[in-house]
TrEMBL record:
Protein name (Swiss-Prot/TrEMBL): glucan endo-1,3-beta-D-glucosidase
Enzyme class label: hydrolase
Chief localisation class: membrane
Membrane topology category: Single-pass type II membrane protein
GO molecular function: glucan endo-1,3-beta-D-glucosidase activity
Taxonomy, superkingdom: Eukaryota
Species: Hortaea werneckii EXF-2000
């Protein structure tokens, strides 16, 4: 994940690629929809349900660059 964060996020700031976070936070409530044959993924997030960055994940600095036009 750190390789992706450093490569994709920083590079997108350089080349102007627009992106969004599909799941910023884990969503444990989704498991209420689990059935024997269908399981919902509840841990896609970069952060846990309490909005803490997951262990080991580093948010890249990207040389101080930031998004200039949020979508």
């Amino acid at each position: 994940m750190n390789t992706f964060m450093e490569g994709w996020v920083c590079e997108s700031l350089t080349n102007g690629t627009a992106y969004f976070w599909f799941e910023a936070f884990d969503e444990p409530w989704k498991v209420i929809f689990n059935t024997k044959n269908d399981q919902w993924e509840s841990k896609w997030g970069l952060m846990d349900p309490n909005r803490n960055i997951k262990d080991g994940l580093k948010i890249p600095d990207c040389g101080g660059r930031t998004v200039d036009k949020p979508y």
